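Notes on consecutive records. When two proteins share a document, each keeps its own sequence and its own token line. Never mix them. Below: protein one.
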Amino acid sequence: MNDACSPSLRKALVYCTDAAMLPFALFSAHAAIACNPGRDFDVLICSDVPLTIPAPLAALGIESRVLSLPEGFSEHTTPGYRNLPAVAFMRLWLASALGGAYDRILYLDADTKVLSRALDRLLSLDIGPHPIAAVRDVIQWRHSTTDKPIYDFAERGITATRYLNSGVLLIDTRTFNEQQCLERMLHTHAMLGPFFYHDQSLLNLTLQDQWAELSPVWNWHGIDLYPFLRKYADPEVLHFTAKPRPWEFSANSPLYF
């Protein structure tokens, strides 16, 4: 008997990745399972092509899922987005593609490490009428919104102040779909795109302040400060958002960001 979850579960931890980032997504997924042995959520690796999950990890319940994206998907993501692959934007389609199977989705970027033993609690969190919950981007940890306005907001005269980081998203699929968030994002892209911070700004410009804010511990960017801040907070999810990352180790830069 393995640790795989029942297909009847209505919650899922989801990664969207291509073959190049698959090993890192699997590392994060494995850590999530190890930290949550009694989990009540499925673990999915989503892509636009089939990806092979190594047998030992598949035995733990990590499942590969190919999502059928609408024809012309790439037209909404390129050109103008720093040559990012279409799979990088797949998170925007998760509620539409998986909403029939899951009420709640926790999306994580592949460059994360899960430390939390309470992912089931996060997946059940009351986020009120909001379609998503997220953590403010690290730029707003270090600067006030008046000192350093968000570029994609300022360029378009947007007065919203909070700016989420899209690397960790708690999605209520029913609310997301009922509020037509995907359709609104595609409209935003058509009217205002492209964006300097690509799909992250697309989410922010569409939802603006209509999202629930999570504690920074759920998307912890300050990896270099981690040892010094442990007495104040215990990060639940580490997010390696800048260079060097653990797989880019340099003897001259021993700190990971």
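Protein two starts on the next line and is unrelated to protein one.
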Amino acid sequence: MGVPTTSNWKDWHIPVSESDVVLGEAYESLSALGARQEDVPLMVQLVENPKYDIPGFDIFHGAVNLRTHDLIHILLGRGLLTSDEAFTIGFTMGSTNKVSTTEEELFAFASQYLYPKVYKFGKDALHIFRDAAKLGFISDCEPLDEIDFDALMDKTLAEAREAIGLEEDLLRAYYGIERRRYRKSKASARLLG
């Protein structure tokens, strides 16, 4: 499979099984399709972008800029659909090991009720977000919001995951569960490649 050549962002996906793809090449393929930072609605940026954090106070742990968020999508083997967004955000937050239940619920509320329609999380996406937050917490990987991705751009996805301690077997185990739970979901169905 390798790097996707699709022109439709809904079809873009590099499964976790594609471990020989170079991170920089994967990012180029995603950035050709993905939104630019200025295209992301302000409400979403207020919640997810660290640029809007209050100095000395993190409302949501794991907030990252769009480039970093896209690179995390790639390392986690997720596409760009709502369930993929939910997993990527949840895992990133969980990997900080700082997320409280209150913070998790506050994010769930914002994503369900305050986000613009196309960005809203439905019931299944909220379950995936919560699962991913727990999975990120139990993972021994480095906090994904603190990774120096520039140092990883020439590495394969397998090498990059290994460098940050991201366990492919943990992802594969959960993706198998997600795939069985959400059989009608395009995002969940394609997870294992």
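For the record: Residues 89 and 129 are 7 Å apart (CA to CA).
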